[in-house]
Amino acid sequence: MIVLYGPTWVYFRSYRKYRRMPLLAGFALVALFIWFGENIGTLTAAWVYPSQRNGWQMVSTAKYGSWLLLMIVSFILVALVHRPRPPLAEQIEADEMAATNLPVFD
Would you say 26 and 6 are in contact if contact means Cβ atoms under 8 Å apart? Predict the structure, then answer.
């Protein structure tokens, strides 16, 4: 997976600004937050796994791998439906220039 997706960057627009992030970092972060949410859900007894009937324990880290796989499959399916297109170079350059030009206060 690292060999395949390692050099890949994903571009996205947050509000009006284009940003980029390593694809693997995005997968890992989203899967991590889902895993945290799953732990919170079982802690508050929204649902209980069979191994938690005698008392709460953290959800196995193996489930994190399941959420990571879900992110990869979801990304591929969305990419098939909405074909990726390259970001507009002018907009990315303008955003990068704006980030480096800090306002001067007198």
Answer: no
